[in-house]
Predict the structure of TCPR2 protein.
Amino acid sequence: MASVASPVIFKEFCPLYYLLNAIPTKVQKGFRSIVVYLTALDTNGDYIAVGSSIGMLYLYCRHLNQMKKYNFEGKCESITFVKLLSCFDDLVAVGTASGRVAVFQLVSSLPGRNKQLRRFDVAGIHKSSITALAWSPNGMKLFSGDDKGKIVYSALDLDQGICNSSLVLEEPSSIVQLEYSQKVLLVSTLQRTLLFYTEEKSVKQVGTQPRK
């Protein structure tokens, strides 16, 4: 006799008011009052990262129930993508509407972990809005894609405080998703999906028909 499947139970979750109340709805710039829009989101077991239209990254620590703020120096521009990673250190990568990419190495209270906030910049390769970010599991590699089809590889040496970046692939349409695993980068664009083998620097398309 076939077993009867258990019924699916739907749950409704309340808005995260403790998080939203810690983010201002407006900020004052000179004589102007500017509305703050939430533009990007990523979560893991330790943090909730929220990007905003004023270039401010709001990082909520779930264990300490604390909100911290990080921003780019200079021009105030919208954050378009954020990507968290928990490895030996906690890292968050941030991309903006003009193509700026920065990595924040977060402070940890655990012994042997990072004790000073550090920032690494992916210098000057992207010239348009960042649409995707992907980490390697150990935090030594970051891939970033933009809406003009450029994909940049950044090699991070957290001990030496060095970030070296280079253009590795250029597609004719916007990048919509990046995922990295075991020397293979999965790339989805508005037109196709492909596998980029980072060691051989070769490309294999997934499927044969272009997206419409």
Remarks:
- The longest strand covers residues 162-170.
- The radius of gyration is 19 Å.
- The domain at 17-22+31-175 is CATH 2.130.10.10 (Methylamine Dehydrogenase; Chain H).
